[in-house]
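To whoever is on call:

I kicked off a structure prediction for a single chain this morning and the downstream step that reads the tokens threw a length-mismatch warning. I double-checked the sequence; it's 631 residues and nothing unusual in it as far as I can see. Pasting both halves so you can look.
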Amino acid sequence: MNTNGTAAAAHSGPPPRTTVAALGVVFGDIGTSPLYALRESFGGAGAPPLDRFDLLGVMSLILWALILIISIKYLLFILRADNQGEGGIIALVALLNPWRSKPDQPRYWLMLLGLFGACLLYGDGTITPAISVLSAIEGLHLAAPQLSSYVQPITVLILLLLFGVQRYGTGRIGNFFGPVMLLWFIVLALLGLRGIWLDPSVLIAFDPRHAITFFSGNGLSGFLTLGAVFLVVTGGEALYADLGHFGVGPIRSGWFLVVFPALVLNYLGQGALLLHHPDAIQMPFFRLAPDAVILPLVVLATVATIIASQAVISATFSLTRQAITLGQLPRMRVVFTEANESGRVYLPVVNWLLMIACVGLVLGFGNTDALASAYGVAVSMDMVVTTILALVVSRRFGWHPLIALGAGTFFIIVDSLFLGANLAKIPDGGWYAFVIAGLIFLLMWCWRKGRAHLSAQLARRSTGQAAFLEQIEADPPYRVEGTAVVLTGREEPSVPAALLHHFNCTHVLHERIIFLNVTTADCPHVPAAERLSIRELGLGLISIQVHYGFSQPPNIPVALKLGEHIGLPIDTESLIYILSRETLVAESDRHGLAYLQTQIYLWLARNAARATAYFRLPEDRVLELGLQVVL
């Protein structure tokens, strides 16, 4: 179902306000690329010479990358592949309904491909803040040369402050992000016009023949330059990931009316500057400005990169929460920073790991030239994955098969060219993104395998609800006053092994028992009217399934309030919640990879957040029943 219009309409305020707000969230990454992208195209060993022929060729590549990848692929095609208005690679994978697929099914391998793509975004999430803020602060080399030795310390300090304030949320200052980024894009455009005035002939770079002749004239060197040119479109995935926050309309309006013209003008301005002053290649962006305003420009650039970094950090939080909800990562502590906006979350563990990684990148790589070698690999592979998945699900959106196949094939070829050029960066730092993605994918894999094994073990020790009903009907237990909510943890109607063991020992039950299971749908949101599925079993036993979308935080007390309002005979203020707490022990005869996988799962399980906090249960009314399980 395509509900982009609904998603867009759900946001308050007239479209212009929503479009300006989108500037502060969606376009921060791609909007700060002019700080370093063109410079990197002519930096490093094997880069093409900085002459008119090659400069116009690179400029043509930059312009057509923005047109083909962002304007056409993402804005016109990919944004149409939404999951009930939600975008991003997890939402796209969920359209395949893959979570219960088996290894012999194609959906299973597409799911793994999508999950690895999601893992790659974590590498991007650590590099973007580091390279963005560092590239802005490096403007001090021009604005205040006496402070050049403080570029790294200032960058580290800003990153520490940025991650340090995450716990407080960005609700109050977030309203200023859009206007600040609007100012940033206006400045980009004005600086670009100033550069174009020097040499309007740079406009001939719109002719794609310059890009073609650049390749034919430079061979392998020209192909590898694509790795640097790709830096101008690294924010493309953010356009798709933030679809659910703003809708298609504001994102398209923001791009075509503000961002795209500003970026094109600025890149052309830098190109015109370099045609006249090749020595400006070290900092073409800041050299576009008059000397008197370079320092204020450094300040504005720093603020813009902080906003861009904030958007990436928030996206990483949201991605992690979706993965947790879908059972791909262990539960973590989630803090909701806005009382009325469940989408704004803070995950302490993720925040501090991102901070350590970002600071480590700044100290380890030292400057944006070195960091650029690590950047782009993850995003380019993600773009290939996104295109493949969008092609697979295209029939859901009524796309004509031939058009979908033709467009998909074309963009897979284009994306693969950029990916191939970026893979050449692996020895110089591109390995970093793969290491991060590989580690997170390993954790996801071990968690999935461990959960599946644990579920199988518990299933063998549990019993069906119908059989349990027959048991207590044949041998009635002693019933104590009150209602107990038993979290079953499995979609199949069953009685948890821990409760069954406790009952067999005590032969005591509450007068009313609710077997409750939380399920996650393959869509981002489930309406409140569809939250509960209730089934009366008899003898005071009730089975309830609580349905959430993968972008919704579970809150069992609130869900049961809905049941109370529709006549469920309970008092939610006096409920007792019964949870199973498994003590996990590794099987002694496991060896090799099986042993390693089990040990990783046990470590993850021991450090996972408690179910009480995750489901937001009142701690003074939770009873945990222990059970030892050998894995």
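Update from on-call: the warning came from a stale cache, not from the record. Cleared it. Sanity check on the structure: Confidence is low (pLDDT under 50) at residues 1-14.
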